[in-house]
Amino acid sequence: LLTAISIERCVSILFPLWYRCCRPQWLSAVVCALLWALSIAVFAAVSSLCLEQKESCQVALISMYALDFFIFAPSMVVSNVLLFFKVLCVSQGPQPKRLYIVISLTVLFFLLFALPLSIWNFLQQFGYFLVPTQVVFLLACINSSINPFIYFLVGSCQKRCSLVSLQVAFQRVFEE
Questions:
Q1: Which chain regions cross the lipid bilayer (predicted)?
Q2: Sign of the dihedral through C-alpha 120, 8, 97, 74
C-alpha cells in the first residue's frame, strides 16, 4: 500500500491536470484491492508450497522476497525521489503539506527499518548471514511502532509545535 500511495502521490504532482481531470475516481480503490489480492495470493502460494512441497519452498520464498525487494521498494524510492525533486527543487510554490511530510517520513522509515528485513530474508535464502537476526527484527519492530509517532508529531505541529491530543493530531494530518 505504501508503494501505491507513493506512486499515486507522485503522479498527482507530476501530472496534475491528468490527475484531476482524467483519472477515474475508482482507480485508487481498485489498485489497493489488487495489491491486497496480490499479497494474499503470494502469501497463500508460498505457505502452500512450504507446507506441502519442501523442495519448492526456497524458490517460493526467493520469489516473494524478490518481488518485495526488486519491484515494490524501488517503486517507492523512485516515486519519492521524483516527488522530492519536483516539489522542493522545481516548484516555486509553498512547501509540502503535512500529508506529504507524513507519507515521506513513513516511506523513509520503511526503507531504513523494514527493508533490511527483506534484504536479510532474501540473502538468507542463499546462505548469507550478514547481520544477526535480532538486529533485523528489532528494526522491523521499530518500523511497526514508529508510524503513530510520525502522525502525532506532524499533526501536532502547526506554526509552532505544541502538544495536542492524539485524536486532534490525526484529524489535522488527514484533513489535508
A1: 26-49, 69-88, 100-123, 135-154
A2: positive
* Domain ranges (residues) in the chain: 132-175
Instruction: Specify the DSSP class assigned to residue 24.
Output: -
DSSP SS3 for 154: helix
Cell of 12: 498527482
Verdict on whether the full-model pTM lies above 0.70: no
Alpha-carbon span 135 to 42, nearest angstrom: 26
Alpha helix (H) residue ranges in the chain: 2-14, 16-21, 27-52, 54-67, 73-84, 98-109, 115-124, 133-156, 166-175
Distance (Å, whole) CA 146 – CA 149: 5
Could you read off the pLDDT of 64-73 as tens digits, one per residue? 888 877 888 7
Nearest to 41 by CA among 14, 8, 67: 67
For 23, which DSSP code?
S
| Dihedral sign for Cα atoms in the order 62, 66, 72, 73 | positive
Longest dimension (CA), the chain: 59
Given a contact cutoff of 8 angstroms between Cβ atoms, the answer to whether 149 and 162 are in contact is: no
Per the structure block, which three cell numbers stand in for 13? 504532482
* Closest to 150 measured CA to CA, from 105, 98, 84: 105
